[in-house]
Amino acid sequence: MRRTSASLVAGALVAALAWASGPSSPAIALDPTPGVADLTQDLNQILADSRLTIAQAGVMVRSAANGEELYSTDAGKLLVPASNAKLFTSAAAAEVLGLDYRFTTSVLSSGRKSGPVLNGDLVLRGTGDPTLLAEDYDALAAKVAAAGVKLVTGKLVADDTWFDDVRLGQDWAWDDETAYYAAPISALTASPDRDYDAGSVIVSVAPDGDGVKVSTTPETSYLKIVNNARAGSATDVLIERRHGTRTVVITGTVASSYSEYVSVDDPAAYAATLFRDALDKRGVRVLGKTVAGAAPEGAAELARKESMPLSELLVPFMKLSNNIHAEILTKAMGRKVAGQGTWTAGLKASSDFARANGVQVLNLRDGSGLSRRDGITPASIAQLLIGVRDEPWYQTWYDSLPVAGDADRLVGGTLRSRMRNTPAAGNVRAKTGSLTGVTALSGYVTSADGEPLVFSIMLNQYLSSAPRDIEDKIAVRLAQFSRTAPVDAAVQLKSATQEGPDLECSWLKPVQC
């Protein structure tokens, strides 16, 4: 039943009283028009879900056209954002680094060349490029060989000093240390695929007679494989790197091919191994050991590789919610702004950018949202989403957000299986967020009247499976929002969340994604 004129007047009075009591008050529309009143009623109904009874739920909806607040409930509460933190990291990177920013990887010589002999060290220096593949290290090795170098009398030096040597976020869970989504952060690294999951190797198993065959992508001698698996009637296998080591232990049974992404313990040493192997294949022999160090002043450049620009990297970063990209960009911002490739300097750059865009409450502990000490309010996210709309890089950044219901993996991203066949499909562009007990969805939607809206939905501390359907129902209702036209009550709360795993795809590779 829709509200009468008398009830709307009463609602407006209650709204004024509620607003005076602060942002944590029950959600009341501040605009007494029928469309906004109906929206408030419907969003309140959605959020009355019993799964949220013991949970924390914060929601903010504003008009992107004029900033008007259309709905708010606990929007000023500090909540764990999970990957919604990437909204701040990506936007700050676009501003601080610029869309044309590229990472550079160089091969340098600290000695003199005498014919085919390089008397001195060969240095591999990185600045954080997460897109480097084994084939890129081979291409660098080919350039060294093409320069006429056949023998290096010194050492191979892995230089990752562009960033500091703090590899893991200080709040990250210890049992995530071997997971690809929490790989160590380094200025010199490598990825096994074109999702650019830097600092990881894909370990694959397959039945081989009575035994199990193990392979890696890329092929590398860096990992020590302990294969205790056996062939069986079902695949029930565990592939796990021992903490703080290069040793990967495989146990269980294998009936069919299976792969697992495993982080490496030292990305710079791993990258140097790939490069050294490539040098060997190209006929370049290095007599000395592989060591960590810094390139000396005045070292001559023998080869160079530049990454894709940030404008292109934003797509796999945001569509697939890549944690490692977020942390690398954070340290890259710190290096540019303060000359320090640290989390401290980079997070200050992100926070300063957010506050310059009107964000008042923000506590960032990392760039990806992996930390449970990250704290953001729905109101802060909505303010950021409005504040960046006038930036020259906005359209490129906006295009990097996942698109609801679009099956293309690099368009729909983490929303490709959600809100299909609803008014939100192809309309909602938003960032997902997922940790155990945390889900979030924040972004943009165009209403039925063609009005651009921003929204932030943050749900914390539930004990059920992830209530993403609540997020979807709200987003669908916003796509149907009209200030004047009534919404069909029979369809207004429908959503289309495809059944699937409890966490977003960025946590669940490779099988589920």
UniProtKB/TrEMBL annotation:
Its EC number is 3.4.16.4. Keywords: Carboxypeptidase, Hydrolase, Protease, Signal. Residues 1-20 form the signal peptide. GO terms for molecular function: serine-type D-Ala-D-Ala carboxypeptidase activity. InterPro entries: Beta-lactam/transpept-like, Peptidase_S13. Belongs to the peptidase S13 family. PANTHER family: D-ALANYL-D-ALANINE CARBOXYPEPTIDASE, PENICILLIN-SENSITIVE CARBOXYPEPTIDASE A. This is D-alanyl-D-alanine carboxypeptidase/D-alanyl-D-alanine-endopeptidase.
